[in-house]
Amino acid sequence: MTREKRLLLALPALSAVALPVAGQSQEKGGSKPYNIVYIMSDDHSYQTISCYDGSLNRTPNIDRIANEGLRFTNSFVTNSISGPSRAAMLTGKFSHKNGMTTNATRFDSTQVTFPRLLQNAGYQTAIFGKWHLKSEPGGFDKWDVLVGQGFYFNPVFIVPEGRVTREGYSTDIITDLSLDWLEKERDTTKPFCLIIHHKAPHRNWMPDTKDIDLYEDMTFPIPDNFYDNYEGRPAAAGQEMSIAGDELDYAFDLKLNSEDIRTRLKLNLDFAIKRLDPMQRKEWDRVYDSVLTDFRNSNLTGKELAEWKFQRYMKDYLKCIKSLDDNIGRVLDYLQENGMMENTMIVYTSDQGFYMGEHGWFDKRFMYEESFRTPLVVRMPDNASEYGKRGDVTEMVQNIDYAPTILDLAGVHVPNEMDGESFLPLLTGKKVKNWRKSLYYHYFEYPAEHAVRRHYGVRTGRYKLIKFYGHDIDNWELYDLQNDPREMNNIYNHPSYAKVQKELHRELVKLAKQYDDPVEKNPIQN
Questions:
Q1: CA 292 – CA 298 distance, rounded (Å)
Q2: Coil, strand, or helix at residue 381?
Q3: ∠ at Cα 488 (484, 491), nearest 5°?
């Protein structure tokens, strides 16, 4: 796809670069440049958004964005883990190019990002909530971010002046900060970019006390591959994120708070619970003391125990989603009531997908569909009539595309160094010639929590090729997603797929070169 890109000078000289006034390229629309509200959660699976599925829960406010705009049905990430995903979103670049390859890395926040470019072009920029990049946020007029992963209750925030503890539930607080900024602090003569980054529904899935009774009387369906034996997939067999195993911690994750239940993460639960105020603690104990009693009385083993753990995981996770969706509704209502829908682009997504028991797992990281895919719904400004398409966008997009898309909408030139492509042309309702037909992925974090091996790969509309590599693994996997959407049968070196396999190897080599990824410093073979 062709698009105009201009190479920006190094960051220290950005202020001297002659950039266009924000929005000057808009030929239609309102009298002001378009605003952007970008909402991102942490580990929100598309399976638990009702406009994507609907079999598990309802998310009316996320659905509202989709119903009034667009649902992307082939939205993916480049590296399914929190910090690297956020860095890719901000920079429009793959992990090996923006420097944030793992959660242990420190993100260089002085590099070129879309908020910094918007700020330089006259936008007012703000971020509230999760940052999780180990550095101080850059490119923002206002920032107020959680310490690390953040706490669900009475969380600590970092502000330029230091640290502050705020009382309440994190999802409510992050929304309060965002709406307060819109209402009281922003310069109304400037266009704005507001980034709202929620902690929820990140592990350990502590629900707001007002939602604590939800789903307690429900039984959720067990995924048909919950008891996957990982035949032919050694990397999948070697992971440590099993719901049935000890990786789903009895104390920290399942909230079994008792002195005789000593687990690896028991102290993490103790620390989190100590943050609850007396009223919060009363409600918490009312529900989870009952869960503990049920667990003791049931004396479960084997499959019954695994499925009991699955039900507890699902209930707590979905309770967090309820609060998340409610707070997205608060933002939408504010924009509607204040006449801001006409000129504001609204994006909702997650930093990656998540496993809801598929393959027997929680967490993410793998290039398999549940964590590689991410939800993405976009509501365009009412005044942006040229981008008036509604319904589904079926073309493949990645989180590196968000930065160039937002810059494109704002009328700010996209630097050549960004790997992503603006998907703004896809929103016109017309087919875009030469849109990408394949996706590149690279996961780096091993050895680490959950023991997911390093891997890179390519996905086309129908097929997926993955290379797992490192000191303890050297293995290829190939999937026919049309015939095997659950990715249960590794068909690498199957004679009937020889031609497809060769083509995918060729495409993987092409993409690795296109994105300047040295992969494992060994040539991709076969």
A1: 10
A2: coil
A3: 75
Structural domains in the chain, CATH included, are 11-205+317-429 (3.40.720.10), 234-314 (no CATH), 440-514 (3.30.1120.10)
The one-letter code for the residue type at 268 is N
The structure's pTM equals 0.94
Torsion of CA 153, 158, 162, 163, to 10 degrees: 10
Report which secondary-structure segment, H or E, holds 283: helix 278-298
Q: Do residues 265 and 251 make contact, with C-beta atoms less than 8 angstroms apart? A: yes
Q: How many residues does the chain have?
A: 526
- Please, what sign has the CA dihedral across residues 226, 229, 230, 235? positive
DSSP string for 8-28: PPPGGGGGGS-PPPTTTT--S
Residue 378 token pair: 């976009």
8 Å CB contact between 64 and 152 = no
Per-residue pLDDT of the chain (526 residues; tens, 9 = 90+): 433 333 332 333 333 333 344 544 333 334 459 999 999 999 999 999 999 999 999 999 999 999 999 999 999 999 999 999 999 999 999 999 999 999 999 999 999 999 999 999 999 999 999 999 999 999 999 999 999 999 999 999 999 999 999 999 999 999 999 999 999 999 999 999 999 999 999 999 999 999 999 999 999 999 999 999 999 999 999 999 999 999 999 999 999 999 999 999 999 999 999 999 999 999 999 999 999 999 999 999 999 999 999 999 999 999 999 999 999 999 999 999 999 999 999 999 999 999 999 999 999 999 999 999 999 999 999 999 888 889 999 999 999 999 999 999 999 999 999 999 999 999 988 889 999 999 999 999 999 999 999 999 999 999 999 999 998 999 999 999 999 999 999 999 999 999 999 999 999 999 999 999 998 665 566 5
User: Is the Cβ–Cβ distance between 90 and 84 less than 8 Å?
Assistant: no
Give the tokens for residue 274: 């100590």
Cβ distance 138 to 109 under 8 Å? yes
Residue 285 in tokens = 């104990």
Inter-residue contact 465 to 478 (CB < 8 Å): yes
What does the CA dihedral 360, 365, 368, 370 come to, rounded to 10 degrees? Answer: 70
479-495 burial by CB neighbour count: b if 16+ within 10 A, else e? bbeeeeebbbebbbeee
The Cα 181–Cα 188 span in angstroms is: 11
Rama region for 423: left / alpha / beta (φ>0; ψ in -120 to 50; rest): alpha
Other CB atoms closer than 10 Å to residue 380's CB: what's the count?
A: 24
455-460, strands of its sheet edge to edge: 438-443, 455-460, 463-470, 473-480
Tokens of 482: 């049309």
Give DSSP secondary structure letters for 112-133. Answer: --HHHHHHHTT-EEEEEE---S
